[in-house]
Amino acid sequence: MERRQTKKIMVGNVEVGGNSPISIQSMLCTPNGDFDSALKQCEALCKAGCHIIRLAVIDEQSLLVVRRLKEVLSVPLVADIQVDYRLALGAMEAGVDKVRLNPGNIGSADRVRQVVAEAKKRHIPIRVGVNAGSVSKALLAKYGAPTPAALAEEALGQIGILENCGFYDIAVSLKASSVPMMIESYRMMAEKVSYPLHLGVTEAGTTYGGTVKSAVGIGTLLSEGIGDTIRVSLTADPVEEVRAAKEILGALELLQDRPKLVSCPTCARCSIDLISIANRVSERMDEIKKSVKIAVMGCVVNGPGEARDADIGITGANGEGIIFKAGQVLRRVPEADIISALFEELKNMDAL
Fold it and tell me: Which positions ≥6 away from 257 have C-beta within 8 Å?
């Protein structure tokens, strides 16, 4: 696929847009002001593969957490601001790497100019974040409902406020819980501006349903070359958002140096505990540091042959596990030892 070419911005030490790799974002859900919980969740997100972390900045306690996090973390932090421009100024002074706000929501032109001046001084980008629930009353009256055109026009209006202040270090998001609306909104925006786009389906739902909706919405746009950074919004532990995002990028072969897992569906030929084995291997994929392809197959008849292109694979039958490479049996072990044997071989391949 051919990536849409956009302006490149820097979010801390992470490049967003241009030809940069697509970055993964998530958002803290710890109690406001609880630094220890925030730090623990940041560390978990970083370990899972998150590139940029956002947190709601709602008062002075939030700013204290931002300041302390920036003292110990290298991952970029984004301040999510609703209406109080003073919190945007305070967050930038505290060291955030990006601000998410809609300038039309923070009051007078003078307040916008103050925020823009601080962002310029500190080289901090601003994300204009529009969603179906934040379309203005005027545009709702014009279009009759939140529509892709309404979202795009709302975003262009917010962008225009920043551009009129001479500010162009901008990213844009146009989120909706409706996947078709979200897809069409981003398509429209991609034709109108060259700013990097942050993709997401808002209010997507719980882990299973929300992941499916996000995969369809985000995946469709990425397959068209649209999108520079993504968040999978789930009613779940934020680590699950990162895992889902990695799976989406991995499925489209857009995530560099990511190991791949393929596993076959079960059938009557399967005589090992394939589902459990595949899940246990999947849970340990973060241990693998190289781009290797691992196959978990259900039978010795078809498994090694069908997965001949895998770097390494496992299968078995009747209590016996088999490790194979290039379709050839490498070793046989008891089924109970098959996963440990697989990871021993991965270690021998310098993949751990």
Answer: 289, 290, 291
Q: Count the alpha carbons within 13 Å of 237 in the hemisphere toward its beta carbon.
A: 10
d(CA 1, CA 27) in angstroms, rounded, equals 29
Reply yes or no on whether the pLDDT at 255 is more than 90.
Answer: no
DSSP H helices, 123-178, are 137-143, 148-164
State the helix-helix crossing angle for 35-48 and 60-72, rounded to 10 degrees: 50
Residue type, 47: K
Q: List pLDDT tens digits, range 51-74.
A: 999 999 999 999 999 999 999 999
The helix (H) or strand (E) run that includes residue 24 is strand 23-27
Residue 293 has phi, psi (to 5 degrees) of -105, 125
250: enclosing H helix or E strand: helix 238-251
What number is the average pLDDT over the span 228-255?
96
Sign of CA pseudo-dihedral 10, 16, 17, 21: positive
Taking the model in full, what pTM does it have? 0.93
